[in-house]
Write a structure and sequence with these properties.
The chain has 217 residues and is mainly alpha-helical. Helix content is 65%, strand content 8%. The protein has one domain (2-216). It contains nine helices and six strands; from the N terminus they run E-E-H-H-E-E-H-H-H-E-E-H-H-H-H. It has a two-stranded antiparallel sheet. A two-stranded antiparallel sheet has the order 3-4. Strands 5-6 form a two-stranded antiparallel ribbon. Strand 5 and strand 6 form a beta hairpin. The longest helix has 25 residues, at 161-185. The protein is globular.
Length: 217
């Protein structure tokens, strides 16, 4: 059982590893295969959010037993719906990334989120580089959403604006909640967890902002 991103969920280490390997595969193939993997990538992201919804919105507590965080469940499923729609609409164009300072700055934040160098037992940083290929971030909304947003940012404006906007605004809502959880309510225990949630907040704000830049243009 693991607690992170404000939710408690149960899954096996083999499932974590499989999800992480699949994530790495899809991220690495986008620059190479470009639009040939666009549909597969969108379906993968959509399924990921369904998993986030089912695994991170359910908690088992000693006091109340089974608890379902309905708001999170609805928001995560909503994002999944938009990514499923994108797999049909095919509005994302991965043919040419925009590699400029206005987009490349997201890479360090994306790397930090994907690495998630935190020992979730002690809640202190664990800088073991093996965490890049084997940690719990692969099945968490808060660590994977910055990665998905970063990909859309790097290919902006040739992306599905509605999907970008919905993913970013919900990411911002969850990020704000986690900011309070980690830095205000339980800062002594969860401070470092909050630090590693910063990429979610920053990238969500930026992605939501640029989603309107396209409309204005």
């Amino acid at each position: 059982m693991t607690t992170t991103c404000g939710g408690t969920f149960i899954f096996s280490s083999s499932k974590i590893e499989k999800q992480r390997q699949e994530s790495q595969f899809h991220f690495l193939t986008i620059p190479i295969l470009k639009n040939r993997v666009s549909k597969v990538f969108s379906l993968y992201v959509a399924v990921s959010y369904v998993l986030f919804a089912t695994l991170q919105s359910i908690a088992f507590t000693e006091t109340f037993g089974l608890v379902i965080v309905l708001t999170n469940l609805i928001m995560f499923i909503l994002i999944a719906v938009f990514w499923f729609w994108e797999s049909l609409a095919m509005k994302n164009d991965f043919s040419t990334p925009v590699l400029t300072p206005s987009t490349l700055w997201v890479i360090p934040f994306t790397f930090l989120a994907f690495w998630y160098p935190l020992n979730t037992t002690t809640m202190i940083p664990d800088l073991n580089p093996l965490g890049i290929v084997a940690n719990e971030a692969g099945l968490t909304f808060c660590m994977m959403t910055p990665v998905y947003l970063a990909i859309l940012i790097i290919y902006f404006p040739n992306v599905n604006i509605a999907t970008l906007r919905v993913t970013s605004i919900i990411g911002l809502i969850i990020g704000f909640y986690n900011f309070l959880l980690n830095f205000v309510w339980y800062s002594e225990l969860l401070f470092w967890n909050g630090v590693f949630h910063i990429p979610l907040i920053i990238l969500a704000i930026f992605a939501f902002t640029i989603s309107y830049r396209k409309v204005n243009n």
